[in-house]
Q: What sequence folds into this?
């Protein structure tokens, strides 16, 4: 069953080479629940290791009751899925540098000039990110344009041929088969090679920027599959766009370049080694995402805002400016290359993959009276968007339950492709909306049953790449479309797009949303012009734009960044105010019903996503209630065997361990000395950094930061490290490697306070300490362990207890599990799925 | 001398009603240095209070040596000013809520629905901020337009009269007198009523958003003086703009509305009481600043980015969206009102106080070949900007030393006004550049010695409000200006603007910078067109725009926000890329020589401004070296007399006190229990919240959060609170009012780590604790104080020492004093000035 679960989740495949060297995540919990079963992640079983914290009976009982009720729910062919779950399988990124001695020594060695070099390198990387992202976008655009052109020409010729002599069903068959086979290839590579490349990638990148490590999301393989997949989906005629995936592509490019090596290709260029840690990598990924938005929509400022809205918890002027630089370079590269490709080398007229075309502000300004109308359109967009999301929600639940085998997923994708072609064909066939071909900008005018010199107007919408259809809806002169055509098109495309989103293909939802919105917006404009007997408001293109904004806002619920993206895509700031109004209304109305599409999918994957603030009503919770306890701690000088056992303990899989100075016989009190990560311990064990117990005075082997960087980010699993029985008895001194000043909170701190600290600093582990506990600070010092009792200044026979006592640990999942539901604060259950 | 110092600094006046109830800041330090003298702020004298921390001899010696060398430098008529000083007189804002019991009880009482009401109130406030800011901008614009129109008509009639019959010196006299008298009034009100209203207010708002409390900066009186002052400066013909001050005005409006009361007018509307704390107020001030930018330049997105760049350390999506809403409302209000005022009610054509006019992207696109030229212009802008700043730096130093009396300041302002008029007149008089009046857009064409039907081209630049001159330079057709005219104008205006910035008048530097840049940019464009023999690049308007961007960027060094402001002001995204390149180049080149104008002025005022990151090479410093020590601590149950004495202690003026549980006889160890602020103690004393020592079991009077809010932000000084001798012997229980979970750092944490925590969370006090100190945790428990020794579980006669030991305190000044200078890390001295 766990294997089945793999295929539907973003991170399902290849758990064995999980980036943090953690294996055995699928191993059953010691308390007997199988993998994939829901249950509390708190550790319940007694263990031989130093575990610190309260273990109240109440907790135990509750947890056990919970487990008992969860287990019987499982049925063989259905994956138990509950939206009130939080998955334990996602790791967190660490935005907090581990300031251990090695790190500080390096930083202190670096002088001012060297820091300037580092800064210059950052700029160079950003420029490279921009250039490469732009080039990838160009590649996608050019290939799609040629392949789609080829396909439409073939089908058009066929239709033209069969229109004359009858037998259009052959044309339908040809069209459907072409689409289905292209989509099949696109779906196959995604389903079998890299499932994380499915969809637009925006939810995944949102998670990454939020600090959740989605396995494989920034790998080279993912990029290749994504690019091929998106080309095939668009060429396959699905109701999808190629814009969303650019964000993902940009991020992968950024992650790759900034590390100066490719783990997949096993090439290390030995450059940019300084940037091999989560902090730096995440900054570059932000830049990559921004460059992607910028290339997709020609919206560099929008790209920066997207990255900031989604990611950077800590706004930093330099970082922002670098991100903006990458964005600008990206759109500029795309613009230059496409201009050359289109033969007008110097005019720079294609800033993005989609351009909304030039809205002439003089002809198409708006007046104050129109503002209520725009707000009304926002309401409509919000409702339609919520409907879209609700439908997609049910569909996704269905898919999670029943369509989890890759082959089924491929079949579904082919089905959708064939149905899309069929619907398009039938609509075109049934449409009697003919328009004069003269002066129109249609790329592949289908004459069908129209008179000579005319073309079928429905075909401009269906028989075209969606980007072109959007631009046509914005700019075709009034009268180009008949209201009936637009109405039918909206209806059909709405359901098609809804069905398509979530298929196992690489594709985005931006363009279909814009297209739906533009269609009903234009329809709305035409009706309005009809109602007001053709007053000055009549330009339907303007209403198409507002409808597109409303629909997109109603579906994705982005705010400032989307406003700016729309503004930049129109190339005109005049519409800023109405677009903002429309988006704001759509968001408010939509949020009333159901959340945004991306957030919905993130939640369906049970990702521990941290929102901006703790739930407003959570002041009643304190760190004590939120934290995980007991905590597995390590002593400052620890036995190697203990370390190995703790790391191999599949029941816990903790990634950070407080280092304490404690009386080994009194596990209830321990003074915090630092924090060490699983990955650091792995590297220490791998390099055999330890000394024999008898020779504690010997200096243990020194490591360099480079050793840690070389292992980043795919640290080997503990199982791959052989430790002999003799070595197990050695001692390892962690002082030099642990972070001696981890952030801490007292256990009385409220949840919002803990949340704020955690979120603002991008932490992964937050140690909860007790500074109020009145237990005895003097305990018996056993003579045998005298070496571990430094400076006994207590009365004879007593051992001084350190001052900061570890009582628990807060990690991402402990904070993400509290959510504001309809009935107030609700707590998600933790599950291994 | 201290009185003299008052006048030149932003916060100089009315120290007696400083917002935090702190008096006696001008009282001499106990160690004998006079006020105004530089010296270390660390407390050196022994004191009767509970002071905790190390006091090393090394520190003492160093500090004393420093003091000895500083003292003799003072001379009677010169204010000793050293740019390597950090003033101790600025308070910090507190972005961290004091989560005491009262606060938590209130938050827990508020349910979900009530939180929604709070959220709606926030939106209403933002809308009001936008509307009022827009209206104030309209008011300024309309009044300036009418008064300036009147002035120019009078002068023009006079010139026209005297051109015919000779005696133009009378016209010059009239012009100069008119200007000087108008400026005199503007300068008088600023110098004598509210000096903080001087200048653009941008540095002050930057400081406020950064977390520094500049006294009076967000008061109603300041707003009134600012608005009147800026009108008078612009009408007085100074080389200033009215845009910068809008940012300050918007901030004051926001601060006023969000508090639901005016302390100056003594009116409390009893609304928005929830928002009466620094955290909320600062968010609204961000919105106000953004609304100001938006109204000034018609740049709502630019406004949001400005606020974010300068202020919000923690990016929050909801906050950003609200700020954007306020910005949009602001530009929309301005647009509507001005459209109605100009008679074309519905066309919404004036989004900002300055609009760069419509750049037609078709006619004025750019090609790739032009990009190196733009970069070159950026270099020129950077150099000219650095020159401007360097000149202004010397001028400001001169002003701080010699022109510190208000009357001298008024005289200087009048002098500048008269000189500006004279220079303008002489330039116009000497110019022989005549242009045909037909088809030009000049508002007040001066014929002077030109032929009939022609006008003096120099007069369009000088005989006009600067906003109009800028737009003329952008859009006048090629050939409207003769290169000689532009060159002379640039030269003269450069020095005039440089002299003007820093005068005691309300005025901004944006427009003069743009004007200088537009002039040399246009000159550059003309030369280029001449050199290339009139190729397609010839449009000088485009080069004027780039020159304007380069010059402004070279002076103020803003990054993303300025790019977006320029983009929005041109109403066109086409120029985004070149503008970014130009601004980036200008910033890099400028930063090489000298820092930005605003930062320079902030530094000249010795404000403890926190930059984005700690200096890169500061990893060698730890919290131990950075912190202030010893710390004055309070016991959880403290004698009232001690509290009063500590608050009245003019040698320390601390604002936050760690609350400890300690053995009163052993001041070297104390366990942290919480943190309490001076303002909270003041309110407690005012409401007599204490019980007699004999009746410690009695419940002391309960306070509500409202009592604290009513006193916010102008807490009374301790001197105004009478505490009788009997009351001094009472005890005060702080448990309920202190923040029980203040943020702490261990003393080994590196400076960058401390900085990051402090900056990201917007803290005011950060307690440094020792979790490694190996002193004895068991000390003698004196029988007399048995009540203060709870749960003695130590061996008989010993008292358990608490676990978290306070060793120091880090506040803003401790972090701001480390700076990256030319020769590496440098440390600023602290001074009372």
A:
């Amino acid at each position: 069953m766990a294997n089945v679960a793999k295929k539907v989740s973003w991170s399902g495949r290849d758990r064995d080479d999980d980036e943090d060297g953690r294996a055995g995540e699928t191993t059953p919990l010691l308390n007997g629940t199988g993998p994939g079963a829901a249950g509390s992640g708190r550790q319940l079983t007694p263990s031989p290791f130093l575990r610190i914290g309260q273990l109240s009976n109440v907790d135990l009982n509750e947890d056990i009751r919970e487990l008992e009720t969860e287990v019987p729910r499982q049925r063989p062919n259905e994956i138990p899925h509950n939206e009130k779950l939080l998955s334990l399988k996602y790791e967190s990124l660490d935005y907090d540098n581990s300031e251990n001695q090695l790190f500080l020594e390096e930083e202190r060695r670096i002088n001012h000039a060297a820091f300037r070099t580092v800064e210059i390198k950052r700029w160079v990387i950003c420029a490279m990110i921009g250039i490469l992202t732009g080039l990838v976008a160009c590649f996608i655009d050019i290939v799609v344009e040629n392949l789609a052109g080829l396909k439409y020409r073939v089908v058009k010729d066929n239709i033209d041929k069969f229109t004359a002599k009858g037998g259009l069903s052959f044309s339908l068959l040809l069209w459907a088969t072409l689409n289905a086979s292209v989509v099949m290839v696109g779906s196959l590579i995604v389903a079998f090679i890299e499932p994380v490349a499915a969809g637009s990638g925006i939810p995944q990148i949102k998670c990454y920027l939020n600090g959740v490590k989605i396995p494989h999301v920034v790998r080279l393989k993912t990029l290749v599959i994504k690019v091929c997949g998106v080309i095939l989906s668009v060429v396959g005629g699905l109701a999808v766009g190629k814009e969303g995936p650019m964000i993902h592509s940009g991020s992968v490019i950024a992650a790759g370049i900034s590390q100066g090596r490719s783990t997949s290709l096993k090439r290390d260029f030995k450059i940019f080694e300084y940037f091999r840690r989560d902090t730096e990598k995440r900054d570059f990924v932000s830049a990559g995402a921004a460059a992607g938005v910028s290339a997709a929509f020609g919206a560099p400022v929008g790209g920066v805002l997207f990255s900031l809205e989604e990611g950077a918890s800590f706004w930093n002027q330099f970082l922002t400016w670098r991100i903006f630089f990458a964005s600008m370079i990206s759109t500029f590269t795309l613009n230059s290359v496409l201009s050359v490709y289109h033969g007008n080398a110097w005019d720079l007229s294609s800033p993005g993959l989609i351009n909304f075309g030039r809205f002439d502000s003089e002809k198409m300004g708006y007046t104050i009276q129109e503002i209520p109308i725009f707000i009304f359109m926002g309401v409509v967009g919000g409702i339609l968007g919520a409907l879209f999301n609700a439908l997609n929600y049910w569909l996704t639940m269905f898919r999670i339950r029943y369509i989890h085998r890759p082959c089924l997923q491929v079949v579904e994708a082919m089905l959708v492709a064939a149905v899309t072609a069929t619907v398009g064909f039938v609509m075109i066939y049934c449409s009697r909306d003919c328009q004069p071909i003269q002066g129109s900008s249609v790329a592949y005018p289908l004459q069908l049953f129209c008179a000579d010199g005319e073309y079928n107007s429905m075909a401009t919408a269906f028989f075209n790449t969606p980007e072109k259809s959007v631009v046509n809806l914005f700019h075709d002169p009034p009268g180009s479309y008949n209201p009936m055509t637009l109405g039918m098109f909206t209806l059909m495309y709405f359901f098609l797009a809804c069905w398509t989103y979530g298929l196992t293909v690489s594709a985005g939802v931006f363009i279909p949303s814009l297209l739906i919105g533009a269609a009903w917006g234009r329809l709305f404009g035409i009706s309005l012009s009809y109602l007001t007997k053709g007053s000055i408001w009549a330009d339907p293109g303007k209403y198409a734009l507002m409808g597109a904004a409303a629909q997109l806002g109603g579906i994705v619920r982005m705010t400032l960044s989307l406003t700016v993206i729309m503004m930049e895509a129109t190339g005109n700031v005049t519409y800023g105010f109405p677009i903002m109004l429309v988006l704001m209304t759509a968001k408010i109305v939509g949020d009333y019903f159901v959340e945004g599409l991306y957030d919905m999918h993130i939640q369906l994957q049970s990702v521990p996503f941290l929102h901006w603030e703790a739930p407003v009503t959570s002041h009643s919770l304190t760190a004590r209630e939120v934290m995980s306890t007991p905590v597995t701690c390590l002593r400052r000088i620890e036995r190697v065997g203990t370390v190995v056992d703790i790391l191999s303990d599949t029941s816990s899989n903790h990634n950070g361990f407080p280092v304490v100075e404690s009386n080994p016989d009194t596990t209830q009190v321990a003074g915090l000395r630092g924090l060490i990560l699983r990955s650091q311990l792995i590297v220490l064990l791998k390099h055999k950094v330890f000394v024999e117990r008898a020779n504690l005075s010997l200096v243990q082997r020194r490591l360099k930061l480079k050793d840690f960087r070389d292992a980043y980010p795919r640290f080997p699993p503990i199982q791959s490290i052989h430790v002999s029985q003799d070595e197990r008895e050695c001692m390892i001194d962690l002082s030099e490697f642990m972070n001696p000043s981890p952030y801490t909170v007292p256990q009385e701190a409220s949840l919002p306070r803990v949340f704020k600290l955690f979120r603002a600093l991008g932490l992964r582990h937050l140690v909860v300490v007790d500074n109020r506990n009145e237990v005895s600070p003097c305990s018996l010092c056993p003579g045998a362990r005298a070496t571990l009792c430094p400076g006994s200044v207590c009365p004879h026979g007593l051992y001084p207890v350190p001052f900061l006592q570890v009582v628990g640990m807060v990690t991402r999942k402990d904070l993400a599990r509290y959510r504001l539901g309809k009935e107030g604060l609700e707590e998600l259950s933790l599950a291994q799925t």
Residues 290 and 303 of chain B are 4 Å apart (CA to CA).
